[in-house]
Predict the 3D structure of the following.
Amino acid sequence: MDFRGQRNAEWLLVRILIVFAAVSFVAGYSQGDFQLMVNINAVGLLLTALLVIPSWPFFNRNPLPWLAPLHSAHEK
Amino acid sequence: MGGSSSSSMHSWMHRGNTLITFFGTVAAVLCLATTLTDLRHVYTMPDPQASVSLAEVKRLAPMTGSKEQATLTFSMDADLRSVFSWNTKQLFLFLQAEYSTPDSTVNQVVLWDTIIQQKEKARIRLKNHKTKYSLIHPSKGLKGAPMNLTLVWHVMPRVGFMYTQSRTFPGGRLPDKYMQ
């Protein structure tokens, strides 16, 4: 995962978990169902893990440009 | 957490760690929010209804070791359904006899208890019900002792604070002489 990918992954992670938590709280409280809140958060955690833990190609679109190799003694 | 630094995201294990740690913070905030709803519930719920009475003293007799034992039945009509909130795990409900004797003024003995895990089961009607535990006094003095019956319930939440409520009812006086 390149540097920009790392930043994007963390940005996503924080926002997805917060959105799931907020939705789960409203749903659980309005339905009077604590287990519903727990389940929604479990789904959110799994989805986020699937999204940010593997190094997906879309996190690798900004590779760091390395300097061209210097000419060295080997080159003869 | 959530800063601009991405230094903890470069390997899959670091990303897993960041995820679990942040999830822990989110879960703690949810627990706090849930506790606040319970606080509101406690102040706004309709008063639970309960009435308990002593039905009959079946037996009052001396025991070995200068103890005394009373065997009682009681009746109860309680509706504790309003106590349940979305965060209530269970109620621990017990009935306690409180009496005083010439040698000891404050005595509390648990006569019966139960655990209620569903709101629908918090409607309880018992008629001439036998106590679960007998009333044993460690010395003499039960004869003619004035008694109260207190119904106590501990409300246990899934997350947050536990609290206790109770109602006390007059239980009359124990008989003036032994009865087998």
